[in-house]
Amino acid sequence: MASKDAPPPKGSKELEHAAEDDWHRSVRDAAKHRAVAQMENYDGFKNMVSVAHLRPWHAENLKDHSGPAPPAFAFAADGTHAGPSKNPGMTTSSSLGRPDARDAFAPPENSMQFDKTWRRRCVGGAARWRYLGLMRDEDVDKVFAVDITGATLGEIAEALAEGFERVSNDAANDDDGDGDVPEKIKSTWRGVSESDQDAVASSVVRLLDRVRRAGRFDLARRLISGKAKKALAKLFDALETRRALSSDKETAPPPSVDALREAFGVC
What we know:
Blueprint: H1 13-37, H2 42-50, H3 93-96, H4 111-120, H5 125-133, H6 137-143, H7 150-176, E1 188-189, E2 192-193, H8 197-211, H9 217-223, H10 226-245, H11 257-264
Antiparallel strand pairs: 1-2
């Protein structure tokens, strides 16, 4: 019978090393999956994986390492939770000097940045409308040079339909009022005032014309949902109505709405 004062059996060094190697591998794999899910760039991916095995000794309640702990990159130098770097396609309201910045986005530099902002920050049609309004023709060409998915194409269609309908309704409400709108700030969309329906309609047409030049567009338009197709049909009807009412038909930019209907496969 073993004595109670006997030392505990010694574990094998090889077993300890194997267990530590297995733990290192698991935390690095978890960091890789986390970096991919967050759509980090190369440097962000490398940094997250390289420190995955570290634990901040100065972080509150984590000094004993007795249980699972967040990785080192989740903390700032003072031990407070910091998390990964902010989305480069998003400008915080505090940096703009306003507590509630309306256009708190920046134009995307590439397709990865567009996808990251579109999925994580553009929640709802209004936010997507504003984000699309910041993209110039060259931005659209650059983002969708390789391809565009059916899901993204459908979401763009729904955001444009919802946004243009809101612009039209706002203009109609202004016309029905007494003309005295105190302190009302008119926002801009793709460089034109949203109070100018004709200019906004022309900008929507130009944006759709750039989108239809995207890589693998023909496949994407076949994969959009029925809801998105209905939104496109409604948008094209509104654009045609606006063009018919426009007093400046001579300067309406090509292509025609009928050409867009044919390109997007919407009757």
